[in-house]
Amino acid sequence: MAPWWRAVAAWQGLLLGAAAVGLVWLVAIIILGGFGAAPHAALLLRDVGLLPWVALMVAAILLLGWLTANGCMALVIREADREREQVQQRMRAGITDVARLYVLGPVERELSEFARFHDELTVARAASLR
User: Fold this and answer.
1) Taking Cα atoms as reference points, which of 110, 91, 111 lies closest to residue 99?
2) Under 8 Å CB-to-CB from 50, ≥6 apart: which residues?
3) What is the 3-state secondary structure (H, E, C) of the chain?
4) What is the pLDDT along the chain (130 residues), one digit of tens a residue?
5) Which end of the chain, N or C, is less surrounded by CB atoms within 10 Å?
6) Backbone Cα Rg of the chain
7) Residue 108: half-sphere exposure toward Cβ, Cα within 13 Å
8) Who contacts 38 (Cβ-Cβ below 8 Å, separation ≥6)?
9) 65 neighbors 16 (Cβ within 8 angstroms)
10) What span, in angstroms and rounded, lies between the C-alpha atoms of 88 and 119?
């Protein structure tokens, strides 16, 4: 796992925690401020005028998380493409080496042996015809 993945995972966790806190805050404002359930609660928990701002903050945090995920996905795809190309090059080189060692080498030896046999047969025929 690359070191930047851990940092991004921590960042995503932080964003998720912030979004959860924001949602809890929204619910608290709705319950405590909207219904007047706790007049002694802190102003940040009962001021209904904060609802749009808290909702905007939660939406911005979720958007930032989504943008982070998409940006990281683009990086991962690019890195995977680069790694795939490297693996394909190594695989092709390996196939070439194996083909040279187990196919081309033996075939060249057989063809060389056949050519030598053919040359000797030609000489033997010529000698027998004299």
Assistant:
1) 91
2) 29, 44
3) CCHHHHHHHHHHHHHHHHHHHHHHHHHHHHHHHHCCCCCCCCHHHHCHHHHHHHHHHHHHHHHHHHHHHHHHHHHHHHHHHHHHHHHHHHHHHHHHHHHHHHHHHHHHHHHHHHHHHHHHHHHHHHHHCC
4) 678 889 999 999 999 999 999 999 999 888 887 676 666 667 777 778 888 999 999 999 999 999 999 999 999 999 999 999 999 999 999 999 999 999 999 999 999 999 999 999 998 888 888 7
5) C
6) 37
7) 7
8) 32, 45, 46
9) yes
10) 43
**Per the structure block, which two tokens stand in for 44?**
């940040």
* Token pair of 107 as six digits: 């075939």
Structure tokens at 42: 């802190």
Q: Which residue matches tokens 């709705």?
A: 30
Name residue 38's amino acid.
A
